[in-house]
Amino acid sequence: MFGYIMINKGEMKFREFDVYHSYYCGICRDLKRKYGAAGQFSLSYDMTFLAMLLTGLYEPETTAGSCRCNVHPLEKHRTSNNIFTEYAADMNALFACYKCQDDWKDERKLHKLVYGRILEGRTKRLRESYGKKVRKISRLMREFAEAEQAGEDSPLDRLAGLFGSVMAEIVAVREDEWAESLRRFGFFLGKFIYLMDAYEDVETDLKKGTPNPLKKRYGSPDFEEECRTILMMMMSECCSAFEMLPILENVEILRNVLYSGVWCRYERIHEKRCQRRQKEQ
């Protein structure tokens, strides 16, 4: 369900991209250190945004470094590591575990079952490290899975709201004066992610018979406009909450993601779908 919270590279300065990529590589290093190669395989750009958001808000001590990796063995890459790249790595691994469980239930892909079991074993200690937070996320994910399996009986807003609540808990790293604002931000970001995922997968889910709350709306002539309007409403609320946070460090990178990057994949999906429909006519 992740893969939507990314940069628009074409509108980013070279220096900004280097900084952004240093956090991505930093999370990758934390994943390898804590979860091995299996953890690295789960790496996503979504959690890079989370690490930079929390770094910008709390301004922790950040260690700059460089490393080579298996993907780019001949070239050194800058890395940025702090308590929030480690937190993002933990949440990345935890959520990848949930995603594998969900994929196994929906599609019965054996490799997802095996990979999920590996991650499950390596993320058990997170229940000790984050206790209450992980228990709440686990409860919300169970409710989400049950609601999703109910199919057409589950309203779109309930499913999006449950996933929004999951993201709210992930984003609100501390119970402090910023927790409420971060939860609001995470809630609408999560709803946007869920709705984008449903929008992208609706045709596939119709063919496979897998749950998707947009199935009934898909045949409507207003489907595309309705989806775009809902997505814009969610991201508008998300951006409004973001602008209330006192973030100065790398704020232009974060705005690149929220105001431009999140729409890149939407535009690709929308354009591809429109082209396919024109060919069918």
The largest sheet is: 2 strands, antiparallel
- Give the beta-strand count: 2
How would you sum up the global shape?
globular
Beta fraction of the residues? under 5%
* Secondary structure tally, helices: 11
**Which class of secondary structure composition applies to the elements?**
mainly alpha
Rg over CA atoms: 19 Å
Low-confidence stretches: none
Describe the strand arrangement of the main beta sheet, using strand numbers: 1-2
Helix content: over 70%
Distance between the termini: 31 Å
Fold and architecture overview:
There is one protein chain. With 281 residues, the protein is mainly α. It has a domain at 131-250. Helices cover 72% and strands 4% of the residues. The chain is built from eleven helices and two strands, in the order ααββααααααααα. The protein has helices spanning 14-40, 45-58, 83-107, 110-122, 126-130, 132-149, 156-171, 179-208, 215-218, 223-243, 251-280; strands at residues 63-67, 77-81. The chain has a two-stranded antiparallel ribbon. The longest helix has 30 residues, at 179-208. It is globular, with a radius of gyration of 19 Å. The model has no long low-confidence stretch (mean pLDDT 88).
